[in-house]
Structures are given as C-alpha cells and as structure tokens.
Amino acid sequence: MLKLSELGKEFVAEDSHDGNIGLPYIEADVLGMNQKMECLEQKLKEASDTITEKDSRLSELQSLINSAHTPTLQTEPVNIDELETELESHLQDKIEAEIQCLVMVKARQNWQARAEDQIALEEHRLSAGDDTTMLLKLQDTEKKIVMLKEQVDRLEAHEKELSVTTEVLRMQSKTFKIGLFGLLQLIMLFLSLKMFFAQDSARFGDLVPT
C-alpha cells in the first residue's frame, strides 16, 4: 500500500508540474506526455500480466484448499494454514495490482485529456496568430488604399489647376493675337498713308513754277 501511495504522489506531482507549463512549451510538453503515456501503457501491461498471474495462482490455491477440506486418501498431508496464508498474500498482491492499474489508467486519461487540451490551445494560438497576420495585412491594405485615394485627390486638384491655367493661357493667346492683328493693321494703315502723302508731295512738287 505504501508503494501505491508513493505512486499516486508521483502522478500528482507530475500532473501539477505539467499544469504549470506555458504555451511556448506546449509542443515539448505534449511530447513529454506521449512518452509518459507510453511508459504508463507499459506499466499497465505489466500490472495486467501480474493480475492474470495472480488470478491463476489464486485459482490453484483455492483448488488446493478445497481439496484439502475434502477427505481423500492422500499420502502427503496438506498444510491448510500455509495455503490460506499464501492465498491471502496473493490476494493482497492482486488487489494492489488492480489498484495500481486503476491509478495508471486514471493518470493516462488525465495526461491524454491534458495533451488534447494543450494541442487545442496550440491550434487556437496558431489560428489567432494567423488571424493577427491577416488583420495586419488588411490594415496595411487599407492604409495603401487611403494613400492611393489621397494621391488621386491631389492629381484631380492638380488637373483642375492645370485646366484653369490652360484656359487663362488660351485667353491670353487669343488676346495677344487680336492685339497683334490690330497693331499690324495700324502699321499697314500708317504705311499706306505715308505712301499716299509721299505721292501727293511729289505730284505737287512737279507743279511748282520755276
């Protein structure tokens, strides 16, 4: 019974230690749990074999005790007290083996449940990490969209300014052409008048008496 108590304390201590492991160590913790579960399965098999052996021996002892109580023509006497003592000893061993099996089965179930929980936590953490990455990508895309929209707005404003400037230049060019045309008309008129007066002066000069 002392061995069983120590075994139970060992399982509790290991469970407590495993429960304090953080998420960064989940993979190593799960690997350790798998190793512990393999060790438990081996111990469970040994305990089951022990129970089977004890059951077989108990059946033999029970048969010997029953035959000892039956009057027969046996040549060798059978010590019933010794058989009963051996029977009780094997029965005690069987009970301890069964309890050990139950303890190990419970420990294996606990470790398996903890392994599944921590695997689920790890998957959730990875999923949360993927969600965070996707969220960051979406935020970055939104920022780029805002920047592009601002650039488009600036280009539209610049285009409007260029349109106004082009219209002003077109009006100035038109005004310049009109002014230049008027100036040319004045110059031509001036030259025409000059030539006209020059011809008149020459004609009147020929009529002057000598």
From TrEMBL:
Record-linked InterPro entries: WIP1/2/3
Organism field: Triticum urartu (Red wild einkorn)
Stated name of the protein: Uncharacterized protein
